[in-house]
From TrEMBL:
GO terms for biological process: regulation of DNA-templated transcription. Residues 31-78 are annotated as: Disordered. It comes from Taxus chinensis (Chinese yew). This is Uncharacterized protein. GO terms for cellular component: nucleus.
Amino acid sequence: MAVETDNGKAADYEQVRNARIEENRRRMQELGLLNLAKEVSREVSDVRKKRHRPQTEKKPPPVSTPAPARRSSRLQNATPVSYAELPNWHGKEETTHNPEIYTEQHEKLLGSYESEWVLFEDGYGPDGNRIYDAVKGKTCHQCSVKDNKCELVNNCVGNIT
C-alpha cells in the first residue's frame, strides 16, 4: 500500500519499507516461522475457547430412598406428624365474634347506665385495702380482686377462673 505523492511515484521510504517486509516474509518462510506462528495462534485460540465455555449445571446425585423414620414403639400405629408449611393464603382472614349474652341476673349486678362508674370502688374493703381471698388464694373480676359485696365466690359477676 504505497502512498503516492504529487508526481505519482511512491515515496522512497515506502519503497524501502515494502522491500524490508518482503525480505522478512521470505526469511520467515525459510525458517518455517509462518506455519509455527499459525499453529501457536490456533492453540491459543483453542485454550481461550475452552476457558470461556459456559459451565454446564451440575446435577445433584440422585437421592437414595430414605430409611424409615425412627419412631417410638408406642407411636408405630399413629399417623406421623407432617411439618410441611401450608401454602400462603393471601385472602383476608375471617373474623368471628362471640356475642356477649347477659341474663337478668347479670343486668341487675351490672347496675344501671345512669349511675357513673366509680374507679377503684370495687375490690377494696372498708379499710381501703384490696380484698383478697387468702384461704383459697383466688380473686375475681378484671381487677383481680375479690368483690366486697361477694360473699360466695360463685355469686360474683366475674366468676373466679
